[in-house]
């Protein structure tokens, strides 16, 4: 069998074929054109974005017999041998398995020899951060002053693990994740060349799953095309990857916003029983609630959120509720790192019980008015048909009636904490002056509803001053 996976078959062979790494390509092409190639480079960035591939293209461009504007010709003997991996002056070293000082000493001995066939001797050290400290130290002098016509390229996914002494001896080129649109464009080209029938939605899911990694995107497309027998649909990709559709994730989000805890936990357990990756599902949920918050908050969400119309339904929910759900989803994600994900996510779902009780701050002023209307309805229903003189109600009973009619938690707490006394048949509550000023409308509404209430302002309680001494815990 001579089958070549997509990730290898469609690996770029020229600078012009590289997708999503415009800055690194421009730096290297200009260096080659102007004969200003450095003796050592450090390529740093996420996995699968083209670090080793571009290092090989650099080796081709330096050793090509007929280069043009910084690009290799791809047809000369040297270019063809580099493509086949048999060029004697291109040495690739995997630092993950050759990380010791003895391996570096062998490299130092070989580096002193002149190029055998090409113009430059190029050393590509992959996963360079895996080298031991001793190996790095042994490489210092060679990196700083290598023999003529020798170029080192160190590739790493963990830039922070490279020693500062190594960094100072290399020109650093940073690679970034590839944008989703570029990944989709790349996958479309592969589908056209391979004759694969694909859907736009399927490619979007694959691009999202690849997380900006071109190699992963090509590999996932390869597997999806086999799974779907040459037809890549959104349903095929979701089944193949074991992930839910965005519509299903948004339905689960609505369960949390409506405090439908029983249904949400049942949904989670069904996913677990079917073998779905709960952590991946929770990450999708986090992305969906973020998009819902953006659509709710922004005047022009179309510039930030793709398919923003799908989140129109979430505008009916208070922003405070969306933010609370986003917070509990985030907390659930953190807790899932130290315990079984299903248990962590179930606890997060239970915390959504109070979401339905969240009242927007802008509506607090209208709570008392609604209470007044409800109180009048109650009085009409309880009015006896035969007018009889009612006995005088006790102070405690009347005050309890006031508390029962108040829905706002803050207002109720202020009333319960106030000192009270009875004067001339009225209940006088001593309220801090600041509360009477800031909630004047609410207190006035209470007086209209309950004529036997009076409010007397008192000085605000002084906050305890911080002690200048040592704090005791």
UniProtKB/TrEMBL annotation:
SMART domains registered for this protein in UniProt: AAA
Keyword Metal-binding: yes
GO biological process, one term: DNA-templated DNA replication
Top EC group: transferase
Domain AAA+ ATPase: 37-179
Catalytic activity: DNA(n) + a 2'-deoxyribonucleoside 5'-triphosphate = DNA(n+1) + diphosphate
Keyword Transmembrane found: no
Molecular function via GO: 3'-5' exonuclease activity; ATP binding; DNA binding; DNA-directed DNA polymerase activity; metal ion binding
Entry EC no(s): 2.7.7.7
One cellular-component annotation, GO: DNA polymerase III complex
Keywords linked to the UniProt accession: ATP-binding, DNA replication, DNA-directed DNA polymerase, Metal-binding, Nucleotide-binding, Nucleotidyltransferase, Transferase, Zinc
One Pfam family cited in the UniProt record for this chain: DNAX_ATPase_lid
Entry similarity comment: Belongs to the DnaX/STICHEL family.
NCBIfam families (UniProt xref): dnaX_nterm, holA, holB, PRK05563.1, PRK14953.1
Role this protein plays: DNA polymerase III is a complex, multichain enzyme responsible for most of the replicative synthesis in bacteria. This DNA polymerase also exhibits 3' to 5' exonuclease activity.
Quaternary organization: DNA polymerase III contains a core (composed of alpha, epsilon and theta chains) that associates with a tau subunit. This core dimerizes to form the POLIII' complex. PolIII' associates with the gamma complex (composed of gamma, delta, delta', psi and chi chains) and with the beta chain to form the complete DNA polymerase III complex.
Protein known as: DNA polymerase III subunit gamma/tau
Gene: dnaX
